[in-house]
């Protein structure tokens, strides 16, 4: 058996896996990245959901620096082809109403490959596509090697690494490593969540979907053959243009191209990837739209906890369901002007890299989850239970997110759930499983519940989780300790958070101080360290506002207590004219200057603390 070695092994080349590989490589580690599909990119590429599900502040705050590089590269590609709107800083090729940025999956693939290219060329990252996990060798709660095999058959590979990250779509490394896992819905008595069922339902895993892309070609007929099981799916799914409810509780019925009053847009523009009129007609003669709708959510059976034969049957059923929805759109959907069917809808298989025109792998909303050191529950993030501007604060935050709790029901008696959240943090403890010391969760498999997974599964959140996993793995190797030990040592954890903030990772919600602001890293780190506090009712920091003496005193006192200084630093420094006894005291004098802004003072405080520590990067508990 051929043996491959690296510092870090990553199972899964989705958004979390790619982000983990990028962060680990940027921090000097060697990486093996194994992906079962032809394409990397997960939900944004091989799973076809290339209209990004993001929050309202994403253009200026809330993504990591590498996630913004990903978005910017996509926009650069399309601006080079555009005739209209290309100077818009928030250019959206499809102009869709559910997403601020949509694109064709092959473009997302090319961007991710370009981001990894410098490390692939040097061999620092080894990418193995179409390779699946087979087994793992575990000794004394440590993974020693993972065995892969090509999906089409062939010789197995043994991958030996110091640290392992599971960023696979279904948490496939977790059972191989023998760690405790959770699936489906937990009982209310277990989590205390108001919307949890009275009894646990491990089989209640969110529905999955095979998206597809179609062009609208007026005057042409592209009707596909009727798929197997069409009549049954049409009846029981059912196929329709309904989604959500209006003000009076009645279902909202969308129209295909026209906008129904009370809806945010049409069915076609919901996830439109290309608005043809923005581009040269020889490049894009027709609009392109991604179809990912309730009507092709497959609820027939889960993909985990079942036999290989049952899994193949579920995937085949899901494919038939999606193709049936396309056939319904082409033949029976009500036309806006009257009549039935849009035979002008042309399936575009080349945009999914598949023979049948569906995504290479279904869009997975819910994975196996680790039994984590820290579990994120509904009451931690739900707006109705978090009265302030932010969700529950975690001192070990390594990522942030914001999205509704959006549960696409499974089969059985489960209902959909759509509930607002406060902007939340992902704690480091949620990435750490029990029962294995060198394994990190790096995607949708972290320590959420069935309910909070519905807010943590989206594109920028999965990317941030993966990047945090890569950072944690790299830092544990640098320190020659386990990830769990970093979590347990406050100084080591703060050092990790500092490296992450200085690398452009947001850890705390201050929406008016993005990565381009000189005080970004300072504010992020000071906030998670508890040295500066946020206004409870606002997500703003107000960086250019003048600093007042009371705020300066509070920050300095918190810094002094953090460093072990128990005196009230501000009054002592302000009252004495002699040379300050401590760098923090000198900063207190700066706080009395009328032109001192909040950001300038925070940045000076941050630099002072870094100087006092000499290098927090080297601090150990």
Keywords:
alpha+beta, 621 residues, disordered C terminus, seven-stranded mixed beta sheet, 18 helices, globular, four-stranded antiparallel beta sheet, single chain, 21 strands
Structural class label: alpha+beta
What proportion strand?
Answer: 15-25%
Radius of gyration: 25 Å
Cα-to-Cα separation, first versus last residue: 41 Å
Tell me the overall shape.
globular
Number of strands: 21
Supply the number of helical segments. Answer: 18
| Helix content bin | 25-40%
| Global mean pLDDT | 93
- Uncertain segments are 566-581, 614-621
| Major sheet | 7 strands, mixed
Account of the 3D structure:
With 621 residues, this protein is an alpha+beta fold. The chain is 31% helix and 15% strand. It is built from 18 helices and 21 strands. Strands 1, 2, 3, 4, 5, 6 and 21 form a seven-stranded mixed β-sheet that branches. Helix 1 links the parallel strand 1 (2-11) and strand 2. Helix 1 packs parallel to helix 3, helix 13 (490-502) packs antiparallel against helix 14 and helix 15 runs parallel beside helix 18. The longest helix is centred in the middle third of the chain and has 24 residues, at 308-331. It is globular and about 80 Å long.
Summarize the structure.
With 621 residues, the protein is of the alpha+beta class. It has helices spanning 15-26, 65-79, 105-122, 173-177, 188-191, 230-236, 267-270, 308-331, 378-381, 453-456, 459-479, 483-488, 490-502, 520-528, 549-563, 569-575, 583-590, 598-613, and strands at 2-11, 31-35, 125-129, 131-139, 142-150, 157-166, 181-182, 208-209, 212-216, 242-245, 251-253, 272-274, 288-291, 297-298, 345-347, 369-370, 397-401, 405-407, 417-419, 424-427, 439-441.
């Amino acid at each position: 058996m051929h043996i491959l070695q690296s510092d870090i092994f990553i199972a899964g080349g989705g958004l979390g896996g790619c982000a983990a590989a990028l962060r680990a490589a940027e921090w000097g580690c060697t990486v093996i990245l194994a992906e079962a599909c032809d394409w990397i990119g997960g939900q944004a590429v091989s799973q076809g959901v290339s209209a990004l599900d993001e929050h309202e502040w994403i253009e200026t705050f809330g993504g990591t620096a590498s996630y913004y590089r990903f978005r910017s590269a996509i926009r650069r590609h399309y601006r080079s082809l555009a005739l209209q709107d290309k100077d818009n800083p928030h250019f959206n090729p499809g102009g869709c109403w559910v997403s601020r940025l949509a694109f064709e999956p092959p473009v997302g693939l090319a961007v991710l490959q370009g981001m990894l290219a410098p490390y692939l060329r040097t061999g620092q990252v080894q990418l193995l596509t179409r390779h699946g996990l087979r087994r793992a060798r575990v000794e004394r709660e440590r993974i020693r090697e993972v065995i892969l095999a090509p999906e089409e058959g062939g010789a197995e590979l043994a991958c030996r690494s110091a640290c392992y990250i599971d960023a696979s779509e279904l948490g496939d490394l977790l059972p191989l490593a023998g760690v405790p896992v959770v699936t489906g819905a937990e009982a209310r008595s277990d989590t205390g969540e108001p919307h949890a069922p009275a009894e646990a339902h491990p089989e209640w895993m969110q529905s999955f979907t095979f998206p597809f892309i179609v062009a609208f070609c007026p005057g042409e007929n592209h009707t596909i053959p009727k798929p197997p099981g069409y009549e049954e799916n049409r009846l029981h799914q059912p196929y329709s243009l309904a989604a959500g409810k209006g003000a009076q509780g009645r279902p909202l019925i969308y129209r295909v191209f026209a906008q129904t009053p009370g809806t945010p847009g049409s069915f076609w523009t919901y996830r439109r990837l290309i608005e043809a009129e923005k581009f040269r007609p020889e490049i894009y003669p027709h609009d392109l739209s991604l179809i990912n709708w309730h009507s092709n959510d497959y609820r027939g059976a889960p993909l985990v906890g079942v036999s290989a034969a049952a899994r193949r049957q579920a995937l085949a059923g899901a494919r038939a369901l999606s193709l049936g929805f396309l056939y319904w759109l082409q033949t029976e959907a009500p036309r806006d002007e009257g009549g039935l069917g849009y035979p002008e809808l042309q399936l575009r298989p080349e945009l999914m890299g598949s023979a049948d025109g569906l995504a290479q792998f279904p869009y997975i909303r819910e994975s196996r989850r680790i039994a984590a050191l820290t579990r994120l529950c509904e009451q931690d993030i739900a707006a109705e239970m978090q009265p302030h501007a932010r969700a529950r604060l975690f001192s070990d935050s390594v990522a942030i997110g914001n999205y509704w709790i959006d549960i696409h029901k499974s089969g059985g008696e489960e209902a959909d759930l759509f509930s607002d959240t406060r902007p939340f943090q992902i704690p480091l403890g949620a990435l750490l499983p029990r029962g294995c010391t060198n394994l990190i969760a790096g995607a949708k498999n972290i320590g959420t519940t069935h309910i909070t997974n519905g807010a943590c599964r989206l594109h920028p959140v999965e990317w941030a989780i993966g990047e945090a996993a890569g950072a944690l793995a790299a830092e544990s190797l640098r320190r020659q300790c386990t990830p769990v030990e970093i979590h347990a040592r406050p100084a080591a954890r703060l050092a990790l958070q500092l490296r992450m903030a200085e690398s452009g990772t947001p850890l705390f919600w201050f929406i008016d101080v993005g990565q381009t602001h000189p005080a970004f890293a300072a504010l992020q780190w000071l906030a998670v360290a508890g040295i500066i506090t946020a206004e409870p009712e606002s997500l703003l920091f107000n960086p250019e506002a003048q600093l007042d003496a009371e705020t300066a005193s509070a920050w300095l006192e918190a810094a002094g207590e953090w460093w072990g200084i128990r005196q009230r630093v501000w009054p002592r420094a302000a009252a004495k004219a002699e040379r300050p006894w401590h760098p923090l005291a000198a900063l207190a004098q700066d706080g009395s200057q009328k032109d001192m802004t909040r950001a300038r003072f925070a940045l000076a405080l941050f630099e002072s603390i870094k100087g006092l520590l000499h290098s927090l990067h080297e601090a150990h508990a």
